[in-house]
Amino acid sequence: MYVISKILYLCARFFKRTIIAFQMNNIRNFCIIAHIDHGKSTLADRLLQYTKTIADRDMENQVLDDMDLERERGITIKSHAIQMRHTLDGQEYVLNLIDTPGHVDFSYEVSRSIAACEGALLVIDATQGIQAQTISNVYMAIENNLEIIPVLNKMDMPAAQPEEVKDQIIELIGGRREDIIEASGKTGQGVEEILKAIIEKVPAPKGDPNAPLQALIFDSVFNPFRGIIAYFRVYNGTLSTGDLVKFVNTKKEYNADEIGVLEMDLCPKNKISAGNVGYIISGIKQATEVKVGDTITHVENPCEKAIEGFAEVKPMVYAGVYPIETDQYEELRTSLEKLQLNDASLTFVPESSIALGFGFRCGFLGMLHMDIVQERLSREFDMDVITTVPNVSYKVLTSKGETIEVHNPAGLPEQKAISLIEEPYIKADIITKSEFYGPITKLCMEKRGIKTNEHYLTSDRIELNFEMPLAEIVFDFYDKLKSISKGYASFDYHPIDYRESRLVKLDILLNGEPVDAMSSLIHESNAYDFGKNICEKLKELIPRHQFDIAIQAAIGTKIISRSTIKAFRKDVTAKCYGGDISRKRKLLDKQKKGKKRMKQIGDVEVPQKAFLAVLKI
User: Fold this and answer.
1) What is the pLDDT of residues 202-220, one digit of tens each?
2) CATH number for the domain including 361?
3) Where are the alpha helices (DSSP H) in 428-577?
4) Which of 348, 385, 391, 555 is 20 to 30 A from residue 248's alpha carbon, by CA?
5) What strands lie across the sheet with 244-247, from one edge to the other?
6) Which residue range forms the structural domain that includes residue 21?
7) d(CA 211, CA 277)
8) Does pTM top 0.70 for this prediction?
């Protein structure tokens, strides 16, 4: 009897393993990568529609873009995970899709998506061809050993050039011409072939469902009623509802109150095994307790080591963010923590300013990212903030031989204590039509760029490589590039190193008092023009007071530009008519003394629009 029960137990275990292995073979994890505006979100809409993941009556454009900002601007800001089911040759397959952003400022979102997948749809616009961010994302996918499926999108457009763009694709990733799928996100052309290629070419996930639990957190969102919802990909083991789990990095323990998969809505399940993607709700309230890239494991039977998470995000642009009302400091902190959950590339630390009080020094991936964060703070958290002049991080070598990293001009040592300053340089990749070669080269040279290479992709498309200071591209470079190329140039960049530069600290003084929020580190050659522009702009925006206001731009003790806002003037001599001139002089001297005293005790009120205007200069 014992032998029979043992045999039955072993058979049951074998069949259980066989069923789990079969289930894993029917899972495909893939993402969609492309340059901005090449039709990723529209193609994702058609995939959801074809697999009947979403009903036709609920269908809308950019269905995965659930933020108003995304719909208004027509761009994807957040990566989105969703599970679809598709039947091929009588077998049902589970397809976990992650739609990703395309703008250079959201490349961190792309890296997180790629790390949780085995395959990628490379979507390329048939009217525009391969662009800078396309190349960047392809290299990222290749580094992660993803199976790449090339898709030629927008084939319904009259301007489509399929043969020319196919040549570009083969030159970039190799492969056969017949493997490139012709599709249209608008009409649904090629969607069936795409789904078939995903099932046949993307490898099934590997992992042991019976091993200790190893699950990688690749995203998280904040729900005001249920706390923090963490999205994860299981590499090994099985997670069941009610399990006691531990987050390896934070060393916090939680009960898995609810787990499930990510369909159009959260879909609860009893267990999620190796290879699958899901979510966990554990009643976590503190934003700092969930970190993207952390590993989830069981408390009783933990895994030996954590999964190698994502590289720590490196901010490219820094700016101070301050509440307009000083008593909203804690509210702003809470809002930033909740926003950080949904946007792991945002970093912030507390700082204070003489002019603005207490606030935070925030790190962003670029100017668009900074603009989006400001907009989201206003819309989602009803927080009105003042943002200081953005700047990049610098390395300062002091006369004592110490090296310090400076993110804020206020943190710069005195000029006499500085031996040299190094600023970050980037490698810029620009792809454009050859007719714009001259104006683009001129723009990059004006921004202190050094051309390192140029390469003709086709007879009328050229790739230009420049090494440039990061500080020169964070303000208006991208806008100017798009303007002079009539929208045909694409741009991507990567940090390379720090180099010595002739940088100076430019201070803005109001009646001799420095406004630290308007200080900036700037190259010596641009300091005069920049200082003059700020003085003139502030003269327009700061309202007149009862006393004269001197606006000065200074480098150290040297004043390089000045504007004066004249005081309101009362005609105190109006009542004097006739008589000796000394009576008028006496009244004017009395007024002059009053104005002088008022200037000493009066405060200059700087409106918020003045700070915003400085950002736009």
Assistant:
1) 888 888 888 888 888 877 7
2) 3.30.70.870
3) 437-446, 470-473, 477-484, 527-541
4) 348
5) 252-255, 244-247, 295-298, 214-223, 227-236, 277-281, 258-262, 266-269
6) 14-201
7) 17
8) no
